[in-house]
């Protein structure tokens, strides 16, 4: 296990980058704490896999350094970094049995045969393939092969880090939940540093201690699931986290009020004048429909999703979502919406402004 330090790290696939836009991974300085589980979360093309491949040694960064426990490994090959990596598509040896595939990383390092047998049995049980351990990998489904690939990544206990690049893409939904649970259990038992790349917020939020949200080659926020939900530091985080995501509404902010089309929304903090694009962000969970309180809103439709209702509405020309608890009556007369001031965030040019306590 290792503390992983990213020092002035950036990468461009162009030979002579001249501007920030030329970088697939924009400058990043961060310490990945030894023994924590991280998720790299973002949409396709945001730089997640580029960063993971730099950490693993498959890619040398254009600038900066990467250190494991203070040792510079920027130019060290993957084999010297003592990491295990599981890729999006399964890589298994078809001519070997499941048992032989799982044992391969241990045998390759001269592990004691008794330990190898015990560890392989343990991992086989963990991935639900104990009945297929002596079956050849050839002919197994992609789902089963990916479980083997996951198991082979987890079989070593002495690695500096475990890296997962969208490993559950080909796994059926029920097994995804099982394997995420097993990965979490493995992390608690052995304390490996784990980095898990995904575009699925559910996978990220249920797996990780800290979620690293990436957008357009940049890390826009690192935080716990609660921090990402309560205080998104960038409008993309608010949009990407949550179902539905945060409402982002153009506004003019003056002190502890945000003005939308001449009407004001009360804020929980005070703000100095701001230039550029100014918006407020409100989670649907912190918006409330009413017949009498708040600003005018036009309901378009109501979706009952079981645990709650999602109200799709129009608010001064902006689309907004409101979440009401299951059982809450929704009537045609409810054409006003109010926001909890303590949970209204203010953004200038997409970045959250903290403001002063009102």
From TrEMBL:
Asked if the record carries the keyword Transport, the reply is yes
Q: Which residues form the ABC transporter domain?
A: 4-241
Query: Which one Pfam family would you cite for this protein?
Result: ABC_tran
| CDD domains in the cross-refs | ABC_Carb_Solutes_like
* InterPro entries attached to this UniProt entry: AAA+_ATPase, ABC_transporter-like_ATP-bd, ABC_transpr_FbpC, ABC_transpr_MalK/UgpC-like, Mo/tungstate-bd_C_term_dom, NA-bd_OB-fold, P-loop_NTPase
Q: Does the keyword Protein biosynthesis apply?
A: no
* Gene Ontology molecular functions: ABC-type ferric iron transporter activity; ATP binding; ATP hydrolysis activity
- GO CC annotation: ATP-binding cassette (ABC) transporter complex, substrate-binding subunit-containing
What keywords is this UniProt entry annotated with? ATP-binding, Cell membrane, Membrane, Nucleotide-binding, Transport
Q: Which domain of life is it from?
A: Bacteria
Similarity section: Belongs to the ABC transporter superfamily.
Q: What is this protein called?
A: ABC transporter domain-containing protein
């Amino acid at each position: 296990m290792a503390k992983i330090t990213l020092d002035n790290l950036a990468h461009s696939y162009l030979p002579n980058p001249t501007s920030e836009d030329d970088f697939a991974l924009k400058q990043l300085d961060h310490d990945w704490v030894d023994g924590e589980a991280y998720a790299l979360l973002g949409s396709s093309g945001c730089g997640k896999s580029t960063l993971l491949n730099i950490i693993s040694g498959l890619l040398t960064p254009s600038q900066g350094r990467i250190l494991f426990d203070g040792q510079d490994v920027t130019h060290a090959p993957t084999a010297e970094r003592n990491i295990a990596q599981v890729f999006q598509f399964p890589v298994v040896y078809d001519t070997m049995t499941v048992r032989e595939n799982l044992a391969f990383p241990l045998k390759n390092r001269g592990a004691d045969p008794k330990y190898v047998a015990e560890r392989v049995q343990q991992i086989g049980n963990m991935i639900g393939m104990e009945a297929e351990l002596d079956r050849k990998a050839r002919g197994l489904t992609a789902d089963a092969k990916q479980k083997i690939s996951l198991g082979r990544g987890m079989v070593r206990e002495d690695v500096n880090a475990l890296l997962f690049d969208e490993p559950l893409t080909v796994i059926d939904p029920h097994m995804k939940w099982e394997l995420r649970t097993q990965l979490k259990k493995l992390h608690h038992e052995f304390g490996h540093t784990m980095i898990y790349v995904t575009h699925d917020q559910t996978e990220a939020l249920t797996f990780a201690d800290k979620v690293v949200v990436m957008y357009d080659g940049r890390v826009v926020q690192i935080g716990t699931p609660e921090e990402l939900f309560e205080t998104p530091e960038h409008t993309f985080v608010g949009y990407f986290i949550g179902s539905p995501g945060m409402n982002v509404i153009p506004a003019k902010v003056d002190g502890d009020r945000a003005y939308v089309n001449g009407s004001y929304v009360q804020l929980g903090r005070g703000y100095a004048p701001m230039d550029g694009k100014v918006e407020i962000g409100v989670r649907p969970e912190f918006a409330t429909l009413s017949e009498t309180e708040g600003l005018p809103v036009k309901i378009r439709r109501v979706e009952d999703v079981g645990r709650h209702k999602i109200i799709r509405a129009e608010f001064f020309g902006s689309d907004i979502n409101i979440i009401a608890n299951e059982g809450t009556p929704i009537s045609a007369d409810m054409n006003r919406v109010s926001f909890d001031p303590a949970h209204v965030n203010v953004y200038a040019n997409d970045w959250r402004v903290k403001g002063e306590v009102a």
